[in-house]
Amino acid sequence: MYKQKYISLLFLTIALIGTSLAQDCTFGGVNYSGFTLNATTNLQEYSSTQGQTQYVWNVCATSPTCVAKAIAGSASCQLSSGQWRNTGLLNTGVFSALEGVVGAQITYGGGPICNGNKQARTTKVEMTCAEGQPTKIVGADESSTACIYEVKLSGNAACGGGDNSGSGGKNSSSDKKKPSIGGGWVFIIILVCGSVLYVAAGSIVNAKVRHLHGKEIFPNYHFWADTFPGLLKDGVLFIKSKVTGTSASSAGYQQV
Ligand SMILES: *[C@@H]1O[C@H](CO)[C@@H](O)[C@H](O)[C@H]1NC(C)=O
Ligand SMILES: *[C@@H]1O[C@H](CO)[C@@H](O)[C@H](O)[C@H]1NC(C)=O
Ligand SMILES: *[C@@H]1O[C@H](CO)[C@@H](O)[C@H](O)[C@H]1NC(C)=O
């Protein structure tokens, strides 16, 4: 029983760590820094234009344009009606799982409050696995909720390389498995089943083979009725004597 509580606690802890700020850019055992654009790559940020709006962002790093045009620490911004706006700060980034696909999303918050719905502008960066494929921008747009923007990337970097030991990334059935019943419960189930079997089989043998009657049909009736209570009492007294520190022999036991 306690074991199950510990298992639940363990899963809860893992879940909390999993959704906490992911400064090292890993989630579910997958290192998403493969999506990070920086000085060593051709581009230093992602950019996509949708309608009248240009979206600019980066993964696990600030975007140089956003820092220069909007605010320090910005990982996501937009150019709309000739005005640059921060739509997400790097240090607010939180990883979460994506429903039904392999990959993850980082949510960057802390943008200026939207006039319409009083929400802080937020950007969700979706990264889905495309086995063996280079990183590609799939789309960038405002979500159905005003001032929440969704930018989408795909690529092999979201698949999790062979170096991670199977947790996360690929379809890992172990993540979905419920924790099995603990050893304590297995013991109790075996004990109950064994007792039922013992009484049933013993009673049949006593009645049909040994032709006993009444209470005597109960298997080893005299042991359970006469001897066992005494043994139980001695056992309890023995444990009690050990706990209280009084000598066991005074309770009718000899030290062995
Ligand atoms: C993720 O990958 C990057 C570059 O490949 C590396 O610098 C970084 O240490 C990795 N992070 C972890 C937690 O393994
Ligand atoms: C720069 O980007 C590349 C490709 O995304 C990545 O492998 C590398 O770890 C990055 N370097 C730093 C210092 O983040
Ligand atoms: C992963 O799971 C999805 C749905 O649960 C399934 O459609 C897909 O075929 C699975 N992929 C692998 C490689 O098992």
TrEMBL record:
Family: Belongs to the ATG27 family.
PROSITE patterns hit by this protein: MRH (PS51914)
Transmembrane segments: 182-205
Lineage top rank: taxon: Eukaryota
Pfam families: ATG27
Record domain MRH: where: 23-161
Subcellular location: Cytoplasmic vesicle membrane; Golgi apparatus membrane; Mitochondrion membrane; Preautophagosomal structure membrane
Keyword annotations from UniProtKB, A to Z: Autophagy, Cytoplasmic vesicle, Disulfide bond, Golgi apparatus, Membrane, Mitochondrion, Protein transport, Signal, Transmembrane, Transmembrane helix, Transport
Protein name, entry field: Autophagy-related protein 27
Biological process, per Gene Ontology: autophagy; protein transport
Record organism: Tieghemostelium lacteum (Slime mold)
Gene Ontology CC terms: cytoplasmic vesicle membrane; Golgi membrane; mitochondrial membrane; phagophore assembly site membrane
